[in-house]
Design brief:
With about 300 residues, this protein is of the alpha/beta class. It has 2 domains: about 170 residues, NAD(P)-binding Rossmann-like Domain (Rossmann fold); about 120 residues, N-(1-d-carboxylethyl)-l-norvaline Dehydrogenase, domain 2. About 40% of the residues lie in helices and about 20% in strands. It is built from 10 helices and 10 strands. Strands 1, 2, 3, 4, 5, 6, 7, 8, 9 and 10 form a 10-stranded mixed beta sheet that branches. The protein starts with a strand and ends in a 9-residue tail after the last helix. The model has no long low-confidence stretch (mean pLDDT about 95). Bound molecules: NADPH dihydro-nicotinamide-adenine-dinucleotide phosphate (NDP) and ketopantoate. The site of NADPH dihydro-nicotinamide-adenine-dinucleotide phosphate has 29 residues, from helix 1 and strand 8. Ketopantoate (KPL) binds next to helix 5. It comes from Actinomycetospora aeridis.
Length: about 300
């Protein structure tokens, strides 16, 4: 049995905590907004997850595994947790969207800790503090190596509801492929206030493709082995997605919470500026996202 601490028990953190608990590990969730019971709902079945709930870094000690699952912009605010939980033998899994996972925790964890960036494929929604709806998938893709093997062993293989851990030799490409999706779907759903069905309509199709082509060019300039097929695959994926589901940015917008745009669209624009790739469409979208006021503005 390993000790597992999850920082941020929202959509992703709540599911990762539940799946670790299912494997018999000793799980602590480190929360900002307190709640009494972590509840995960999957396929209409609701269950209370047996975890320890910590509300202050003074309550915790170094853990074998530290899973950081806050929004990227909240990483700095989790410094107290990271300092208390990540000792020299810990592995810190940065389970967030975007492309600069490792840099985000630079200086926030013990220099002896191993940092493992993770690309998250898992659809979930925090509908209230401590109450998580797990919609689909449960997969983390991480750089191949000893820590990846450890993470796979931690979560086990197979079984209903198990977390799939995939090891890759090219995390840069994996992260940019994920950003391709997030830099298109997240802003369009958040700005329109609509769920995934908005991505499949003729009115948005050109925008979807043109935004994706820009991200593709920037990702390639940053070393990602993306091809035109990735844009076609993205469009096919949107057409197959459940129309009633949304994105993490839409959920934040609907709840009046700050958005993660600087780490998604902002990362595309900043990388393009650095590598000399023009990003006029992503820059326009970024300007709109920066212009949103939360929580006072309203969407349907
Ligand atoms: N939701 C999804 O389907 C997917 C999300 N992702 C990515 O996963 C990451 C996590 O997203 P998601 O789970 O959706 O986000 P949520 O907003 O649902 O959860 C984040 C949680 O972090 C908590 N938090 C923030 N700051 C702190 C802190 N300093 N200390 C303790 N807890 C803190 C928040 O607390 P509070 O309740 O107070 O706000 C919240 O509960 C993001 O990078 C997202 O882009 C990736 C794939 C899919
Ligand atoms: C589920 C998915 C893939 C939607 O783009 C996501 O990563 C998010 O909501 O942030």
């Amino acid at each position: 049995m390993a000790s597992v601490a999850v920082i941020g028990a929202g959509a992703i953190g709540g599911v990762l905590a539940a799946l670790a608990s299912d494997r018999g590990h000793d799980v602590t969730v480190c929360v900002r907004t307190p709640f009494d019971v972590l509840t995960v709902v999957a396929d209409g079945v609701e269950r209370a997850v047996p975890v320890t709930i910590a509300t202050d870094p003074g309550q915790v000690t170094p853990a074998d595994w530290v899973l950081l699952a806050t929004k990227a912009q909240d990483t700095a605010s989790a410094a107290g947790w990271l300092g208390a939980l990540a000792g020299p033998g810990s592995v810190v899994v940065v389970a967030q969207n975007g492309v600069d996972h490792t840099a985000r925790v630079d200086g926030l964890v013990d220099p002896g800790a191993t940092v493992l960036p993770a690309s998250v494929r898992l659809g979930a929604e925090a509908v209230a503090p401590g109450r998580i709806v797990h919609h689909d998938y449960a997969q983390l893709t991480v750089p191949a190596g000893e820590a990846a093997r450890g993470l796979a062993a931690l979560y086990g293989t197979g079984g209903i509801g198990a977390l799939r851990v995939v090891a890759t030799d090219d995390f840069v490409t994996v992260a940019w492929r994920k950003l391709l999706s997030n830099a298109v779907a997240n802003p369009i759903t958040a700005l329109t206030g609509r769920r995934n069905d908005v991505l499949t309509e003729p009115a948005t199709r050109d925008l979807v493709v043109d935004l994706a082509r820009e991200v593709l060019a920037v990702g390639r300039s940053a070393g990602a082995a993306l091809t035109d097929d990735d844009v076609d695959d993205l469009v096919t994926m949107y057409d197959r997605m459940a129309p009633g589901l949304g994105t993490s940015m839409l959920y934040d917008r609907l709840a009046g919470r700050p958005l993660e745009h600087e780490y998604l669209t902002g990362a595309v624009v900043a990388t393009g500026a650095r590598t000399g790739v023009a990003t006029p469409l992503n820059a326009a979208v970024l300007a709109l996202l920066r212009g949103l006021r939360t929580p006072s503005d309203q969407v349907d």
